[in-house]
Amino acid sequence: MVGALPSPTPANDPFAERPFLVFWEVTRACALACRHCRAEAQPQRHPDELSEQEAFRLVDQLAELKPPMLILTGGDPLMRRDVLAIARRASDAGMRVGLSPSGTARLMHFDFNAIREAGIERISLSLDGASRQTHDAFRGVGGTFDRTIAAVEMAHLAGLSVQINSTLTRSNLHEFDAFRDLMFELRPAMWSVFVLVPTGRAQAADVPDPEDLEGVFERLADLVGKAPFTIKTTEGHHFRRVLAQRGKGGRKGRQGMRSPLGIRDGRGVMFISHTGVVSPSGFLPFHCGNVRQRHPAWIYRKHPLFVSLRDSDALGGKCGRCEFRNICGGSRARAYGVFGDAFAEDPSCSYQPSDRSADFSPQVFH
């Protein structure tokens, strides 16, 4: 049975009590066939998806946990007819709600004003190729690029904040300049740059070369504080190290950035699947419990894997001895995807720690 909200675990970690971001995969159904899909999405909804009643109960439990942001994702969340009712319940409970739909014909026929009226503050759309040809090939369905560009404009007209997500792979790093120019044209509120994790349909051979990725991060850092949009990386935590080395950022965050320092899988992030399974992230597919039997707060605060992932000193390899481990910590999901060990070093980081005993804390740079 689902118990009462557990008391917080005393700790110095600012993420010990609650996650900063909760990603809820409300359905795994989607009309696209994306090359990198974490969920390996299917055309039809799963028969064991959380029911509407169970979804509403989960919203109420998350409201007790009070995460700053809840993202309704998938698959394609618009494949659930009750998704706006779920969003409205979460918004009415005081949570900031984001929606991450797929660039399908369904989206083109959706009422964007209804999305905003449901209390959704931000819509995130994916552009994984900087051109029609490369994006549509990535997504597996023709017309996806044009629909996504149209959806950005529709969201702007409806007064929705827009986030654009771009996945960096070995095959599209050469498009970085074109991606950057496209962001300046579309002017989203945020550009979220995701570094591929080999899970689902994504393969280890698609992960960018560490040295090439370092060069892209240097160019991305040039934009921070100058671009007309904020920037964040997902599963590219060592971008924070690049910024810190440049003297950018501060104790509470980073100039031109939005998510707090040190956030990573299980540490400030919690993922809930379409069937209620809780994991440290959607890219780190460990079964840590199910919201049908356990309060999500208990799982986040008490499950041994979540507790261990919040301990930067538990990391192995060069991540464990890196002076930037408390503001970065590397991608636990990519470490698991490549090495089979969630505590191994991040294979996409080229940095070599300078001092085994040093610790680069957010308090020491401004």
TrEMBL record:
Keyword entries, A-Z: 4Fe-4S, Iron, Iron-sulfur, Metal-binding, S-adenosyl-L-methionine
SUPFAM superfamilies: Radical SAM enzymes
Transmembrane segments: none
Claim: Ion transport is one of the keywords in the record: no
Domain Radical SAM core stretches: 16-230
Obligatory cofactor(s): [4Fe-4S] cluster
CDD domains xref list: Radical_SAM, SPASM_MftC-like
Protein name: TIGR04053 family radical SAM/SPASM domain-containing protein
Organism: Haloferula chungangensis
Lineage: Bacteria, Pseudomonadati, Verrucomicrobiota, Verrucomicrobiia, Verrucomicrobiales
